[in-house]
Amino acid sequence: MKWLILLALPLVADEVQFNRDIRPILSDQCFHCHGPDAGNRKANLRLDVREAALEPALSKRRAIVPGKPEESEVFRRITHTTKGLRMPPAYAGHPPLPAEAIEKIRQWILAGAPYATHWSFLPPRKAAVPAGENAIDYFVRATLRANALEQAPPAGRATLLRRLSFDLTGLPPTPEEIAAFLRDNSPHAYEKQVDRLLASPRYAERMAWRWLEAARYADTNGYQSDGVRDMYRWRDWVIESFARNQPFDRFIVEQLAGDLLPNATREQRMATAFHRNHRTSAEGGIVPEEFRTEYVADRAETTATVFLGLTMGCARCHDHKYDPIPQKDFYRLFAYFNNLPEKGLVYNWGNDEPLMKAPTREQAAQWQVLEGVVARAEAQRRKLEPQVQRELAQWKQSLPRTGGAQWQPKENLAYDGKQRMAFDGKRFEEVKPSPVLLDYLTPFTFSAWVNPQSPEGAILGIAEDYDEGNGHALLLKDGRLRLHVVFRWTDIGMRLETEQAIPLHRWQHVAVTYDGSRYAKGVKMYLDGVEQPLKILFDELNWPMKFKYPLRIGAAYGLRFEGEIEDVKIYQRALDQSEVLSLWDRAPLSPQSHPDKLRLAFLEQHASQRIRSALAEERKARENLAAFESKLPTLMVMREGDKRQAHVLLRGAYDAPGEPVEPGTPSALPAPPPGTRQDRLGLAEWLVDKRNPLTARVTVNRLWQMLFGIGLVKTVEDFGSQGELPVHQELLDWLAVDFQESGWNTKALLKQIVMSETYQQSSQVKPAMLEKDPENRLLARAPRLRLSPEMIRDQALYASGLLVEKQGGPSVKPYQPPGLWQELFGGGGYTQDHGVGLYRRSLYTFWKRTIAPPTMVTFDSPSRESCTVRETRTNTPLQALTLMNEVSFLEASRKLAERVMAQRGDFSARATELWLRVLSRPPKAKELAALEKAYQRNYARYRKNPADAYALLDQGEATLPRKGDKAELAAWTLLSSMALNLDEAVTKQ
Amino acid sequence: MREFLARRAFLRNAAGGIGSIALSQLLAAELPRTGGLPGIPHFAPKAKRIISLFQSGGPSQIELFDYKPQLVKYADQDLPDSIRRGQRLTGMSASQARFPIVPSRFGFSQHGQDGTWVGDLIPHTASIVDDITIVRSLHTEAINHDPAVTFLLTGAQIAGRPSMGAWLAYGLGAETEDLPAFVVMISPGQGGGGQPLYDRLWGAGFLPSKYQGVKFRSVGDPVLYLRDPAGMTREDRRAYLDTLRELNEAQSVEFGDPEISTRIAQYEMAFRMQSSVPDLTDLSQEPPSTFDLYGEDARKPGTFAANALLARRLAERGVRAIQLFHRDWDHHGGLQSGLPKRTQEVDRASAALVKDLKQRGMLDETLVLWGGEFGRTVYCQGRLTKTDYGRDHHPRCFSVWMAGGGIKAGLVYGETDDYSYNIVRDPMDVHDLQATLLHCLGIDHTRLTYKFQGRNFRLTDVHGRVVKPLLA
Q: CB contact, 8 Å: A468 with chain B?
């Protein structure tokens, strides 16, 4: 930071600007105790608001007296020679302010202490750019001139094409593409390449990666046992959105509030999975509300970081220390995301509610076909209804009044205990092992005739026989019919009961059905065939139950039955009401039988062939449809449930609600126009409103970072007063306004940047430049940056011909060292893919948050535990080990060697092919000599030890060619590996 | 080395502000180091490194360290409301009908000069009681594993902060060029089960990722991708690296980017690690007496005992932060049969490490910490039978022990009530523990900071105080 101020000094010698010169000092040195946070304010003095700073303080002195530094307490204290009185305070470990800073403050007070709104809270303005000039170059050159620097010469064409290809598609150019570009002498040769790359489907995959990091996308939940989820259809949505260059404002609106758009399409609702990508916890014993609060807060913080570049999370527990963001503002933002009907303790084995089916286009088409088949079959059956009625009436008349046949549902009947049993409150019947084992997703029906003598007792159970035990049971508690499905009494299971007590001392039929949905809403209870209103006592059934308890009649959960039980039936499916009625009406079939039962029995056994085949047809169609639907991918999405009142949470604690708050945008920013909806859609429209000073700037800045490695504002996540001032604010503002004016056209923006001469400069670093501008903020050269993790791996796969390019779809599991998951989790661990899954772009690699893919994190990928927008790059020995020894890179080296050897010609022709594939340029003479020397050494070495050659080549699953000289292949494999390990290979230069 | 010299020069220049006595101490404590920040340590450190023996899942203080003979009187009675005071419980026992008190079913006896009570399950630990400080009054904010472990190891319950080891790697660097500054080793417990662990527990958070802990594994490569492919010898790799270096240097001359020289250096360190790590993990040169001390388990890679022995070897080689994890202490049920298995696995080697460091003269400069993320409830969770019982998570008090550099020997700190439920004397929270550990390492916890999202973050957030009575 310091050098920037120095660099900027010649520009500002005559005038002090508050935002550029003063705010950074006040914010960093004073606001912590004398800023926006009322709770932490010392001496009741605030310096972030001019009026307050000018008023007499508690001490009667005035902090700032405009025009009079000597009378200003601020100036007096920052220059105080007594350590105890000097500010910022020595007792808190602060050194005195540097002389330049003190001088600036003096100048500023002398000039009347003018304040200004923080730069990023003011709308961006588009400064005039001379006609015919590229705006980027115009602004960059102006800054360079002011610092007595000039732009570097253009990069070589091959270098440029490699840079451009990585930047726009994430992959290097092929030798053919380079040759074509070098041959093209037209004035628009470069622009043609830009257009070609922007039109490539790879562009969307490249863009998606960064968005996935910002959106904290992953394939697992992220807390504790880190169960799987399935959000890839959202990733597909992102890729498709970039591919069709969806205007970025709509990209934002649909992800935040696609579900609230009028006539929302399936795709628009899918987009809202964005805010379900946060981590969730399935850890037993958590307090669900604590974690639900965490999820909502994550949505608010992510929204602020990604779209507004504000660190609103700082205002979660107290007023923001540096920015004008009161704590209340955080909870107003929080309130937008608070009405989702979601659980704090989530499902550990897949997506949790609210969710939607998210078919691909092909699946959607097939879905429609299958629904059509059902509709036609249903229509066909309906057409036969008159005939059904006729035949049914005839058949009914033929039934004897007594002594007819019995009929009851038989399908999936797992247990049928007809005999009558008397229970005295002690004895019970046990069937061991149980004829049926029920897991949490197994649908079932329990049915029995009972004549209870006591309001407490167990009718039947496949459960432990003590209080608060585990398993399935149908009980009487306080006379109410009650179902227990329990994995662990205290926190995992489902318990519900009838609202009304059932009568004692009489025979009645009870039945309970469960549809296998793992929710209490999937349970029904019947008394004498009549569905009963239910009270849900506990609804957290979310864990597989592999219990093997016996079936007991008259006993479960330590309860015993008093009275009689007869005709116990257990089905492994949920019967419908007609079927339950058929169990209640247990007399043999007669004209008096319940009409539902008569109809079921007739249709099953006595209807004409035509009717029965129509029924079979419809049933088959429904089963096909259900089977298809059950396999459709789903997405966790946003949905507005009942309003949940949001509160300011004191100290951020979930259980300390303070003042109630309504949804609202941050108070320091321009308010939405009156009449704006107070929901997520209103928020989203406000974010992309052209009066919003932040969203476009923040977006443009992040894209700049994607190309240049550092944003125009380096702190891409923080545009607040502790964030960095933009080095080229006019440029940032110009780009932001232009982006809005272009209809938030991302491709146009990227094209504009890469067409600039600034982008096309050479990245060579001259020592003088390095000293003057080590981070290259002034852009007197192009950046030279290590490739991002996914590009490093993708390049190796691509250069070697292994890459399988297939867009979208479920995540894949490429190579990973064995045991990596087990040592942290136990269990089955990582099941690596075979074939295609090994060679997809890294975008599709399965992302487990608590143990992220090692090749990615070693190269500085964020863990995806929370929203990350800042890029970082380190340079470590672990990276070297990965590139040299990880199987993907070794396998790719060998395949690359095969490719190189397929090249006709001498050593130099092959080496050229290798260099072109990896570095996009031919080797220089010295390099060629070094390579040839290395080759000769290795060739001789492996010629002598063929077994070593085989061992070296035995990498990965790609087949090894049977023919050919293995020593030669081994030697080329090592050269290929070396090529992939070159600094230049892993660098965009 | 260049950094080391620069640092010396820095210290000399800073002499005016520090005072010459302090300076001489500082210089005496200085060894060549790689990485780290100028000005850190802030003051003369007592310990140069830390070995943390983390027991994941929450070992029961009631069976191991916090002797409560009165509990026998209260056995099977419900925990009085006057003790529970409406404190929140985990979702696992909150809806239990009753909270029957269960005393430890394992004995306690007195050890050491002061007759300190230690559970009979850990006789070896009892034998070093005069060398360690037992803290019985640690407490935490979290009641579930994920947030509690994350809190203890990173200072915040929510993911995203650097772990303590990463902070140390960042601030202090290492005293070796051949090994990482921060090494992590995991042992599963024989059952193979237990609570999961997460990369973030040794992660770098918002610090550059090079400060994250490097996991040393007992299966496959000890460090990921350390081994060269079969068919490649050390000579082959050396020749490979020589060519690579030649090519990279030419590029460096042309492009002038200092990053290229850094990369060359990283490849050289990788090469050194390829021999230094196998050398480290090769226990064949350890004399029989080592295994007499740590137990025969130490011969089995991946056991806690083997990792404890490796921890000493890492300490000898200048690694700054050594973090062990032993899993499966989460005894909601099956405590009576499960707890002895865990203590059997760790007790001997934990004590052996302290003895070993002591006999090598390294204990003075090595900080050792033993403990889990929280304690366990005095009341039984689940079924209380003659042969078994369980305890739920208990954040309101738990016990750990510390030893070595900067820490008093033979101290027992803090006291809980008769139920080992609430702290009655000298409470110490997780941030206090962290502040105290950093202090022993010569770091003022308020001054090891990193600016992120506009704020200077630190391990102890805005909390923590050095617990002076623990300091030697």
A: yes
